[in-house]
Design brief:
The complex is a heterodimer of chains A (154) and B (214).
Chain A: E1 2-8, E2 11-16, E3 20-25, E4 39-45, E5 48-54, H1 55-60, E6 71-75, E7 88-92, E8 99-100, E9 106-107, E10 119-124, E11 129-133, H2 141-153
Parallel strand pairs in A: 2-11, 5-7
Antiparallel strand pairs in A: 1-2, 1-8, 3-6, 4-5, 6-7, 9-10, 10-11
Chain B: H1 3-6, H2 10-13, H3 25-28, H4 35-43, H5 51-62, E1 72-80, E2 83-88, E3 92-97, E4 101-102, E5 112-118, E6 121-126, H6 128-132, E7 142-146, E8 153-157, E9 159-167, H7 181-184, E10 186-192, E11 195-200, H8 202-212
The chains are: A mainly beta (154), B alpha+beta (214).
Chain lengths: 154, 214
């Protein structure tokens, strides 16, 4: 399983590469009022407006730093890869490579944190523990509605 | 970590780009394989992007890519004498430096030159220039190994430009009022930065070459 690792607050996390449609540099964001605190804002992607979730704010309460290694991961449904539009963007720090992990090495933590169902399985690499992030719970209907509101005004 | 490791751009002072005195070189051979060099490379990403680049990325992300649905053909482009030719990439297996070759008594001629050893395989070796009627080349630098499903064969070329994906449409047909052999094998003409490129009809060409061997 090919993963795209990143770091939040010094801890290692990853997204399955199959979920990522594109990795982009962070564009200018427009703030989204009334959205959850961890929503970095909205940005224009081709002919739509997409929300961006700051994984730093979501996981560690610290926004991702404004560095070249901080990237915008455009995630979406991999099933509809042909001309698919991403569902949302995720801001993450230190996105500079990929890593291959055998699916058998992924372990469910067995701990269900209420309100954090985006935390996935854990994999032990050479020196670090890597936790998978699931993007689906982050793409809430509320976020889509707020975003559609901006799209209509823009 | 030793003091010299922390030295800024140590690869230019004591590494392979400097005087090569670094003790780590004994293990890593080249600075590329050294953790210090790799770490320094990663730290290049820990810079603050300029406002101008953020503006550019915002623009790039918002841009709708042009719908380019034109069918493209992969071509391998090479030079014979002074002219550029192309073959559909599925006919070309590899481009290698010319190996030793020798003539075959009573068989070798202008077009079929002999047998060439390409990494131990003996392949029929042709002068494509002679087949196309543009004169036989002198001292080919490279050899293209070609072939479809059947037999592999080789011919010398002066230079290989590489593979390109080009749009070949009806407008790029060559004019019908030309008489050279090269033009009989030309399917299309394509414009590249090196000039006009004749796209050869692989099927027809290899049919003819195959017939030369019988």
């Amino acid at each position: 399983m090919l993963l795209v690792p990143f770091q939040i607050g010094g801890e290692h996390y990853a997204l399955p590469a199959a979920d990522i449609l594109a990795v982009a540099q962070v564009p200018r964001m427009r703030p989204l009022p009334h959205a959850q605190a961890w929503v970095a804002g909205v940005f224009r992607y081709r002919d739509t407006v997409l929300p961006a979730v700051d994984l730093g704010l979501l996981i560690a309460g610290q926004p991702c730093r404004n560095l070249l290694s901080t990237r915008l991961l455009l995630v979406g449904d991999a099933e509809s890869r042909e001309g698919a539009t991403p569902a949302l963007g995720l801001l993450a720090e230190r996105v500079t490579g990929t890593v291959t992990v055998a699916s058998s090495e992924l372990r469910e933590t067995g701990v269900c944190v209420p309100g954090a169902d985006w935390l996935g399985a854990v994999a032990g690499l050479d020196r670090v523990l890597l936790q998978l992030i699931r993007w689906q719970p982050l793409a809430t209907e509320e976020l889509a509605r707020l975003c559609a509101g901006v799209d209509a005004c823009a | 970590m030793a003091a010299e490791d922390r030295q800024a751009s140590c690869w230019k002072q004591i590494g392979v780009y400097g005087n090569r005195e670094c003790v780590r070189l004994a293990d890593v051979i080249h600075c590329r394989s050294c953790a210090v060099y790799q770490q320094a490379g990663r730290e290049l990403f820990d810079r603050v992007p300029s406002e101008a680049s953020i503006d550019r990325w915002t623009e790039q992300l918002a841009a709708v890519p042009a719908d380019d649905s034109a069918e493209r053909t992969s071509l391998v482009i090479f030079r014979l004498s002074a002219e550029w030719f192309a073959l559909p990439a599925h006919w070309v297996q590899e481009g290698v430096e010319a190996g030793p070759w020798r003539r075959i008594p009573h068989r070798s001629g202008n077009e079929f030159l002999g047998l060439m050893s390409v990494r131990g395989d003996l392949l029929p070796y042709f002068s494509l220039g002679a087949v196309l009627g543009i004169g036989s080349e002198s001292g080919s630098g490279y050899v293209l190994v070609c072939g479809g499903e059947g037999r592999r064969l080789a011919f010398g070329v002066q230079a290989i430009l590489g593979a390109r994906r080009l749009v070949l449409n009806e407008e790029s047909r060559p004019p019908a009022t030309v008489g050279r052999a090269a033009d009989a094998y030309t399917l299309r003409l394509a414009e590249l930065e090196v000039g006009s490129v004749a796209v050869l009809d692989g099927e027809r060409l290899f049919g003819v070459l195959e017939a030369r061997l019988r």
